[in-house]
From TrEMBL:
It comes from Xenorhabdus kozodoii. Belongs to the inositol monophosphatase superfamily. Transmembrane segments: none annotated. This is Histidinol-phosphate aminotransferase. One of its GO terms (biological process) is inositol metabolic process. Pfam families: Inositol_P. Keywords: Aminotransferase, Magnesium, Metal-binding, Transferase. GO terms for molecular function: inositol monophosphate 1-phosphatase activity; metal ion binding; transaminase activity. Gene3D superfamilies: 3.40.190.80.
Length: 204
């Protein structure tokens, strides 16, 4: 993985690039980068513009504050994406994704806290494991109901925040804070505040 953070001339703004190449978790050999996340503008620790490219899928997701979230497949016309605002699906009826078992009750070796992922597995309608940021994109497209990452760096989160918020996805870190997510150390995205609250209660 190549992580590059470029500090712009102005102290309040920065550019963040996270280029993700053939991680072991994917077990794929390819000459294409699987994921490239670029946050073009971070002002006062608040990401304003995010671009997430999946070259292997020929898909690009992008968003800017107040302008919505869009997906473009190949050379096709971009499509604006948003989730239903009246979704109040309960955890027991939801499909939840996690990026792995690290920093959970299944594997306590990493992180400062072991989140109770077993509660999610036993309660949710289905629990799946989807690596890296694609799980959060799937929430924004309505493919799954929520996704969680127990350990994340700012360059992992930066491009996701504008895309999730502009598509109507609710975001927080695993302590429940919705502020200063860039340095929150973790990320949970959900299709509704109701589901997010239920997940946070189960995890903590």
């Amino acid at each position: 993985m190549l992580n590059i953070a470029i500090q712009a001339v102005k102290q309040t703004r920065q550019f963040t690039i996270d280029s993700f190449y053939n991680a072991k978790a994917f077990e794929i050999k390819s000459d294409k980068s699987l994921v490239t996340r670029t946050d073009l503008n971070v002002e006062n620790n608040e990401p304003l513009i995010g671009v997430i490219s999946f070259p292997a899928l020929e898909k690009v997701f992008y968003a800017s504050q107040g302008e919505g979230c869009w997906v473009q497949h190949g050379n096709n016309t971009p499509i604006k994406i948003s989730i239903a605002s009246n979704n109040e699906r309960k955890l027991k009826d939801s499909v939840i994704s996690a990026s792995g078992i690290h920093s959970t009750t299944f594997d306590r070796r990493e992180g400062m806290k072991a989140y109770n992922l077993s509660n999610i597995v036993h309660t949710a309608r289905d629990t799946v494991f989807i690596n890296d940021c694609y799980q959060h994109v799937m929430v924004s497209m309505g493919r799954i109901d929520a996704a969680l990452d127990t350990l994340m760096k700012p360059w992992d989160i930066a491009a996701l925040i504008p895309c999730m918020r502009e598509s109507g996805v609710v975001c927080a870190n695993l302590q429940g804070s919705r502020e200063k997510l860039l340095h929150g150390g973790s990320l949970i995205t959900a299709s509704s505040q109701f589901l997010l609250d239920e997940l946070l209660y189960a995890l903590n």
